Amino acid sequence: MMTETVVIADIRSQMFNLPLEEPIQDAMHGLQTYFELVTVQITLTNGLVGVGYTYTIGRGGHAIKSMIDRDIAPGLIGAQPNKIDKIYEEALAVTHYVGRGGIAAFAISAIDIALWDIRGKRTNTPLWQMAGGGGRTPLTYRGGVDLNFPMEKLLASIDGHLSEGFEAIKIKIGSKDFREDVIRVAAVRERIGSTRKLMVDANYSYDLERAVVAARAFEEFDLTWLEEPLAPDDYAGYGALAKQTTIPLAMGENLHTQCEFELAYKYSAISFIQPDASNCGGVTGFLRAARAAATHGIPVCSHGMQELHVSLVAAQPNAGWVEVHSFRIDRFTTHRLAMVNGQAIAPNIPGTGVDFNWDLLAEVSEKVRA
């Protein structure tokens, strides 16, 4: 008797507007009060459901959902869910002319994450093992989005992060007058002491000339890295800046294709790469970027989505830092990010370990829309 092949029977996407815990701001994206969460539920003919997702900072969610529904999902009905690489490549091909990053990358990411969730549930394997099995407890830092905070509030937020057990902190910079950035960095360094790690993130608000001046001013504060001082596609600019500062450079959250990552590895002289599985092709895209980074001797870190990235980063032989971001997606999941003494721990749950409280999502999103 032949066993019927299990295939994809249905794909359902939803979009939710979710409030941030307080208004936050960086150097480029304006004041943010909510974010968009786009979810994908892939149902197999045997009834098994895999969950994937992506997010935005408040714009573009409807376009992502539309691309999933109209351009990618119809071609996946009847496909075998274990053919993840094949599905990934076909999705890239379908969206190639209008994609090559951007909205297409977000849409593909959500679907890919759902397929990995299915793989883990079918094989009873957690994501950290599927992704390489290197470990479960990566280096962890608290990434603040706090450029709009006056000094008193900034330092109070730092105190809060320290009280939660974090031993590494990142703050936003990118003020119109870089001297204000220097004052902020100096104050935070004094607050956290000399032994804790400190990172800064400019959200590509500097040009090369300004970045050189700022970086040299920051050198006395023993920074672990200077993140995104330049536009993400200014690969040569990063390479030029690296020659003029002793501070390690980091970037990657705005790189969406493997070609972009390879250009960064080749020309940018970065010390850390920070792919975001929500926009670089999901788990598949993240792992490709991470493995390429390993060949260049670059540690792989993450941006946002800590409830998922904790598993992906920890699993790599070139594991770097997991960012615990201000967009706390795990407030709306059935299992919150596990933390012990300021260190994140990858879940040992089959699949990605990320599932949503759908009733809570609907309730909270409706209030934001109202």
What is the structure about, briefly put?
The chain has 370 residues and is an alpha/beta fold. 38% of the residues lie in helices and 20% in strands.
- Please trace the helix and strand order, writing H or E for each element: EEEHHHHEHEHEHEHEHEHHEEEH
Radius of gyration, whole Å? 20 Å
Residue stretches low in confidence (pLDDT < 50, at least 5 long) are: none
| CATH architecture assignment name of the largest domain | Alpha-Beta Barrel
Total count of helical runs of at least 4 residues: 12
Mind telling me the CATH class of the largest domain? Alpha Beta
Q: Quote the CATH topology of the largest domain.
A: TIM Barrel
Spatial order of strands in the largest sheet: 9-8-7-6-5-4-10
Q: What is the CATH H-level superfamily of the largest domain?
A: Enolase-like C-terminal domain
The gross shape turns out to be globular
Average pLDDT for all residues: 95
Structural class label: alpha/beta
Gap between N and C termini: 55 Å
Helix content: 25-40%
List the domain count as a whole number. 2
Strand content: 15-25%
Could you tell me the number of beta strands?
12
The main pleated sheet reads as: 7 strands, parallel
Describe the structure.
This protein starts with 7 loop residues before the first strand and ends with a helix. It has two domains: 8-124 and 357-369, Enolase-like, N-terminal domain (Enolase-like, domain 1), CATH 3.30.390.10; 128-345, Enolase-like C-terminal domain (TIM Barrel). The model has no long low-confidence stretch (mean pLDDT 95). It contains twelve helices and twelve strands. It has a seven-stranded parallel sheet with strand order 9-8-7-6-5-4-10. It has a three-stranded antiparallel sheet with strand order 1-2-3. A two-stranded antiparallel ribbon has the order 11-12. Helix 1 crosses helix 3 (102-123) and helix 5 (151-163) runs parallel beside helix 6 (178-192). The longest helix is centred in the first third of the chain and has 22 residues, at 102-123. It has helices at 61-72, 84-94, 102-123, 127-130, 151-163, 178-192, 208-218, 235-242, 258-267, 282-295, 306-314, 358-369, and strands at residues 8-25, 31-44, 49-56, 139-143, 168-172, 197-201, 225-227, 249-251, 272-273, 321-324, 338-340, 343-345. It has 370 residues and is an alpha/beta fold.
